[in-house]
Specification:
Layout (H helix, E strand, L loop, with lengths): L2 H45 L2 E2 L13 H24 L2 H31 L7 E2 L10 E2 L5 E2 L1
Antiparallel strand pairs: 1-2, 3-4
């Protein structure tokens, strides 16, 4: 190896690591901005006399069909690869290439089924609580023993 190749390798490594760090920083910053925005909206609703916990913890809007769809896709790809490897006669050597997407697909389908069962057990209350902010204090403090009070 000569010096230019070594410098090129080091430069590419630094660019890869730096790019990854920048992407992670941008994702963390976006999450922090979203939390701050939800907190400001929650406080503004409290000031207007509305307690709505859905502002701070929004419920997912999807119906869960994405995990089922991707699960079926990965399971079918895994099955197709396994069948292809058997036909080619390399099932023993390449079975892992078909088992991995098959396992991912089965896992996603199981996740979808378990989440649907769990959603049936959750009771939803869609109405926010309204109160008069002039009469009801909105600050809660803890005393020396950790008990909530005014």
């Amino acid at each position: 190896m000569n010096i230019p190749e070594i410098l090129f390798g080091m430069t590419m490594t630094l660019i890869s690591i730096g790019g990854t760090v920048i992407i992670i920083m941008l994702i963390v910053r976006a999450i922090q901005n979203g939390r701050a925005t939800r907190e400001r909206a929650f406080k503004a609703a409290l000031d207007r006399g509305i307690y709505d916990p859905r502002i701070m913890n929004p419920q997912p809007t999807g119906n869960g069909a994405a995990s089922l769809g991707w699960g079926i896709f990965f399971a079918m790809v895994g099955i197709a690869l396994l069948i292809g490897f058997v036909i080619l006669g390399i099932a023993g050597d390449a079975a892992l290439g078909g088992l991995i997407p098959l396992a991912i697909g089965v896992g996603l389908i199981a996740f979808h089924i378990l989440m649907k069962r769990g959603q049936k057990d959750i009771e939803h209350n869609g109405d926010p609580i309204k109160f008069d902010p002039a009469i009801t204090p909105t600050t809660v403090t803890k005393d020396d023993h950790g008990v909530l009070g005014d």
